[in-house]
Amino acid sequence: MTSLAPGSPNPAGAAVSAQPTSQAHGTSAHAADDHGGHVDARLFGLATFLVADGMTFAGFFAAYLTFRAVNPLPADSSYELELILPTINTALLVISSFTFHRAGSNLRSGNQSACRSWLLGTVALGVAFLAGQMVEYFNLPFGLTDNLFASTFYALTGFHGLHVTLGVICILIVWWQARQGGRISQHDHFGLEAAELYWHFVDGIWVVLYGILYLL
Amino acid sequence: MTVASPTDFEPQGLQPQGWLKYFSFSLDHKVIGLQYLVTGFIFYFIGGALAGVIRTELASPISDFVSRETYNEVLTLHGTVMIFLWIVPVVNGAFGNYLIPFYVGARDMAFPRLNAVAFWLIPPAGILLIASYFVAGGAAQSGWTAYPPLSLSTPAIGQVIWILSVLLLGGSSIFGGINFIATILKLRRPGLKLMQLPMYCWAMLGTSILVVLSTPVLAGTLILLSFDIIAHTGFFNPALGGNVVVYQHLFWFYSHPAVYIMVLPAFGLVSEILPIHARKPLFGYTTMVYSILAIVVLGLIVWAHHMFTSGTPPWMRLFFTIATSFIAVPTGIKFFNWLATLWGGKLALNSAMLFSCGFIINFVFGGITGVALAQVPFDIHVHDTYFVVAHFHYIVYGGTVFVIFASVYHWYPKFTGRMLNEDLGRLHFLLTFIGFNLCFTPQHWLGLNGMPRRVAEYDPSFTTLNQVSSVGALLMAISTLPFLINVIWSAYAGEIAGDNPWNALTPEWLTASPPPVENWLGEAPLVTHPYDYGIPEGKIDLRVASGADLWFGGKR
Amino acid sequence: MAIPSTLITLLLGMVLVLVGLWVGQNVQLLPLDASSNAPVYDSLFQVLFSIGTILFLGIVGLVLFSLVRFRRRPGDLADGVAIEGNLPLEIVWTAIPAIVVLFVGIYSYDIYERMGGMVSLNDHSAMHHSAVVMQASDSSGPTSPGSDTASSEPRVWAGIGSSGNTEGTLPVEVTAMQFAFIFHYPDGDITSGELHVPINQPVELRMKANDVIHAFWVPQFRLKQDVIPGQPTVLSFTATRAGNYPIICAELCGPYHGGMRSTVVVHEQEAFNQWFEKNAPAKPIPATVANVSLNPTA
Hints:
The complex is a heterotrimer of chains A (216), B (556) and C (298).
Chain A lengths: L18 H5 L18 H29 L13 H25 L3 H28 L8 H30 L12 H26 L1
Chain B lengths: L28 H29 L10 H37 L7 H9 L1 H10 L18 H4 L2 H31 L12 H32 L13 H35 L6 H15 L14 H29 L8 H24 L1 H7 L3 H31 L5 H27 L14 H31 L48 H4 L1 H5 L5
Helix pairs in contact in B: 1-2, 1-3, 1-15, 2-4, 2-6, 2-7, 2-8, 2-13, 3-6, 4-6, 6-7, 7-8, 7-9, 8-9, 8-10, 8-13, 9-10, 10-11, 11-13, 11-14, 13-14, 14-15
Chain C lengths: L6 H20 L10 H33 L17 H28 L11 H13 L19 E3 L9 E8 L2 E6 L4 E3 L2 E4 L3 E8 L4 E5 L4 E5 L5 E6 L4 E7 L11 E7 L1 H11 L9 H6 L4
Parallel strand pairs in C: 1-9, 2-6, 5-11
Antiparallel strand pairs in C: 2-3, 3-4, 6-9, 7-8, 7-10, 10-11
Helix pairs in contact in C: 1-2, 2-3
């Protein structure tokens, strides 16, 4: 071997069998069964993904704020928006976060049918939000390509609406899985927790979006 | 998404075995790592061929080899392929997937299925990108930066395919990043502390944080750009009231960290390779960790140094100059630590060591030009010239690609169970090192003296140096031959490596070569001192002192 | 590991520094300097080149020395010395680069200021313009980006301004398009494909792009500024050496990007006046250029 490393040759079979690890210093045996060694990292993974997703929104927000600060709009357009409907919509989403939370606590305390009702309530609020969004879209005085503000407005709210739609579908799946004998139960509720985390994230993004787009 | 559990992967009869598994939706992190590696090398050769087209065109000062449109397509594809399909997937995906589970003492990554999905996004994205050359109007022509309004006015189909491809690759990168963060933070073997992890884990943690924070911004930006192309919105179209500089900010918010996404893992890999072949502990472990974290933080706030000649106000130029310059400090710490690791060691002058030292030399050179480029007045002259081209290649080729080769020489015995031929390896190093420097050193002078980048024609007075550069490129192309021969020949006829040919202490060597499914037949070893090499200073009884001594059974 | 402190090390260090300084002073990598900005730039380059040479030679020397001195001899199977760190040493090599970098940063800021980089670009119109923007976002009096009728000049977004007094400055309007620069002299209503400037007189280029981003670069002036559609930029310089220098587009702008070149002709004052008079269409002869530039509008 041209590149023979120093030291004695490898202890025979050191790594292939379990025993040498306990003899070797720097490598000592630990808990008897780490086989598979699985910690449930799924919620952590989802949270990391939501950070990434949040950065997409952050990029959009940054773009919007910059546009708004430096690019004047054409003469016949403005940054003003109707406030009533979006405010109701904001309230709907914030309430839906509470209803989802209720659903979760009901599931954990074993009341699965109450959990499902709360889930349906959340779905209803989500759908109402989307409907409100549609009404707003159809009553706006501008279209997608009218001006820079219009384009950014539709891109931001549309991207968020896509998230809400996805969330509603997820909740419906969770609702189905939480039936008696379904995949989600009092003791196995990852699906519900994941959907809940996602839903809170989508709500939080909306609150920021509402602040930046409508109130600012 | 399922947790790694022994029954989850390789269900008998469903997953193909043997060599076929490398073409399957395998969940084994080692298979996925090698899938990344081989796919990456295929794209490296494609990107290299594209570079060959560029250097052939530039061998003469007039545009004579390919049409000007084709030339722009070629340089766009070259950049995109090399960055998104070669370097990022290989230093992150390939070595990350192969090594990280070993280093944290896990049987697989945190999300094996997501891992496989992340890999299998790459071939279709790559094929899509290459195929865009053959559609009507050809591939994207606006460079890998795709600055609007140029990217809005070049043929649309190619540009949209380019966006789609980069979005897929970005998605793959984000999935990979999430997986690495979860694996490193959540799947550590019980008893293994963060500050006991091999340096590559820290590098991958830092890289993955950058991936997760910055890639989505690029994705969002490219979505807006595609709206501009398809739906005729005006985000980045000044004719419709848009702002082209906002695109540049958003683009570089990803693409500067992308440089660290490409070099931080290389830093990590070098930190693994040097101690083993120098037979010394890694010098300054703690400062190494903190300098990685400092590079991550600083890397996120320096993007506008790519825009010093663009529409940036003076205060912004000043801030980004200072921030960028300061990245030199943590980077410098790492280099001094590596030098100190070499100092007083017993250096094996094998291919892995030579490529690592080549990396140090090239990267220091690229780093020095980098600090110079961070200075606004300096950058104003050389921005968008061949000086920047040379600097960039010193960082990503002289830096990262050299490390990729070093890593292949270092870990090939683990991958295959056979050694690579060292003579061919040293020949490979020599040709690469000479070819690389011959190719890129003259470009600094060209840039300083008036040759802009991305041109098919140039001032005839620059002909000689361009031809020297092209000869260097040819030498680089030739240098891959001994490598290819070596890698293929050694897989069948190489010397049998044994489990631990380098007598290394990091966990991947404490198992068979190649390792079994689930990495260890027994339980995972707990390696708390991954760099415990060397004879302690001033210790009389050598046997009791060092972990390495005990590991070698006191037989020294 | 103790910091090597033998006499040899000290001498080597001194030689290294001297070599670096010599290289910075004597190795000429830059093209001719033809603007008042170029010598300033070149002194920054010298400093960076010297520091870079010292660092690079030092590190390469260390690597090569280590590779030779500490190579493993055949048959030697022992390990190196187990040194895991040395805090004073690590502090030293954190502090020195930090100081160097800080020094370089401050020095280059100074250079940048001398180049005119920190000059406010919208001296006269800045206040006015921000008022316009505010108005626009207020929606009460929206304005369109192009017309900007309220302010006399469109907003300048970036660039290198002329320091202090604009008196005696020759204004030139630059329009970049695929794939040419067009120069227009508002004072004489001259339109030209080449830039003609007098020696030793400040020139202010007011640049706009018609289609995509271009960049105006004259290597002999050490100056470059992107020309951005929708965002006017300026570039000020004073040529100091008569001659013809290339104008190069430095931002990928399409297939003929490499061919998008022009020439800047730096004339002696006399010759410039002649050129100006010859080309100014049907206009009373301007006595001197200084007079012309005092003329506020064109």
